[in-house]
Amino acid sequence: MNPQLWKGLPVRIALLPLDERPVNATLPTHIAAIAGVEVLTPPAELLPRMRTPGRADELAGWLAEVAGAVDALVVSLDMLGYGGLIGSRTTQDAASAVVERLAVLESIRPRFPRLPITAVTTVMRASRSYSPAEEPEYWSRHGVELHDLGGALHREFLGEPHERDRLTAAVPTDVRADFWLRRLRNHTVDLFTLGLAGRGTLDTLLVTADDTAPRAAGSLEQVWLRHWVSATGLDTRVLMYPGADEVGSVLVARALADSAAGSAAGSAAGSAAGEKGALDAVPTARAQDGPERQDEPVRIAVEICEEGGADRIAPYENVPIAAGVARQIAAAGAEVPDGGEQRVADAVIVVHAPDPHRGDMARRGEGTDRAVVEAVVDRVAELVEAGSSVGVADVRYVNGADPDLVRALAERGVLDRIRAYGGWNTAGNTVGSVVAALVAHAVGHRHGGVDEAAESRLRWHRIVEDYAYQAVVRGELAQERPYADHMSVPFPDPADVASYLERCAKRLPEVAEELGGADARRWLIASPRLPWGRTFEIDFDLVPRT
């Protein structure tokens, strides 16, 4: 793309990612590439290696150095403060040390007063499991009880029935003390980040929640944070919603959208974030060309086909899917069109609603009602044929695509005609990544053209990873030993990793290429690898066929 066409838009964005996994460090670069924009990330040696934290002090230095060479900063405050997402749960650093690292942003702001700086802080999770892979070691013995104890505290705060005393007695005193003091440290730091937004150091702050529930320690902490957001009048600058691994992509998209629309996108997005009825009566007209639209905010219409689907709360989330979609759109600097004003949308996100039985592809859920799948496919096909730019957020199940939906989209011949697809991990992860890709497409379309190869690569990567791997191959191999025991815990034997990847290298192309289509004919799947040495996530290269 010709950079001269990008009048007033970022050409380079610096990203300090949440951790070193591809969804955090690479996916945002693929999003930006759709619009022809480069994303800079820190040297790999400064980033964490799963449970080994990143070199936070050196990362602060990298951020200060690169600030003068880019057009926008996107910052994970967990990486800057603790050395990464897992570090925010496991390190012993005092709150004062963490805050001192975050203060580098206050030194950057006066040097570059017009530089857009957006950031995210993640409310510490308390997963309902006994896996210590991403938690303190005592999670292997007390993880479920600690999660439930946080939920009991939340219920007590709300005046609801609770079992706090029973759960307190079930956890040793020293473990409870560490759990609560660790949460207190992180909550103190989160309060400090609100001050960064209030003083103008940050243009936008996202406060997201990873693997949460309607009643949980993190959900209660969000109540307290929301109180201070309201009291300080930061509602348009601080956005709160479920999510984590997709946020780097969302904020990169926001940098594109805010630059494309000036201040209009930011103000419109903020006001949209809390509207419960934001998804009602949204038009789905085609995006229009023309320079008169270049300074308008990106608009994404939302369609949830299944009756009652909009009100469902997906697993690991604490708000209905409709509210989560609206907040992800807001966080990406876009807005949901007002149906009463009949304004056209740049793109449409079609949401395959959460399973009413809360299915999990990691546990091999049953097939979806055929009528539900057909309704989604019919609507997607109708929109594509009408010329709309469509993204599909497949949140039917957590931890993988709905195979019935993906195959039906392929059979209808629209899988490689949509602009974006996602069906990975949590609903927030999926929705955020699809929204980000649609925003990048809309901005690129308005300002010089879309990189069609980059868009194809991202779409096919998600199909291969979310459908072929997460929904099919991972489950097949999980039936075999030694693969079954390493969904969350890394393999101790490199030979097992090598044999697993050999199986994936053979099976992934078989499953993905059965779908057919232009993307399948365009890309070869090469060099599969396990970023954290476990089977939960995979990475690979897509190489153009010669």
Give a brief outline of the structure.
This protein is of the alpha/beta class and 546 residues long.
What keyword list fits this structure?
single chain, disordered N terminus, globular, 546 residues, alpha/beta, four-stranded parallel beta sheet, six-stranded parallel beta sheet
Q: How many separate helices?
A: 20
- The fraction of residues in strands falls at 5-15%
- What is the topology, as strand order, of the major beta sheet? 2-1-3-4-5-6
Radius of gyration in whole Å, from Cα?
22 Å
Helix fraction, binned, reads 40-55%
Q: In angstroms, what separates the terminal alpha carbons? A: 23 Å
Give your account of this protein's structure.
The structure is a single chain. By secondary structure, the chain is α/β, with parallel strands linked by helices. About 45% of the residues lie in helices and about 10% in strands. The chain has 20 helices and 12 strands. A 6-stranded parallel β-sheet has the order 2-1-3-4-5-6, sandwiched between helices. Strands 7-8-9-10 form a 4-stranded parallel β-sheet, with helices on both faces.
Write the layout of secondary structure elements.
Blueprint: E1 12-16, H1 22-25, H2 27-34, E2 38-40, H3 56-66, E3 72-76, H4 77-82, H5 85-90, H6 95-102, H7 104-111, E4 117-123, H8 139-158, H9 164-169, H10 173-198, E5 204-209, H11 217-231, E6 238-242, H12 247-261, H13 263-272, E7 300-304, H14 321-331, E8 347-352, H15 370-385, E9 390-394, H16 403-412, E10 420-422, H17 427-446, H18 452-477, H19 494-513, H20 518-522, E11 523-529, E12 539-544
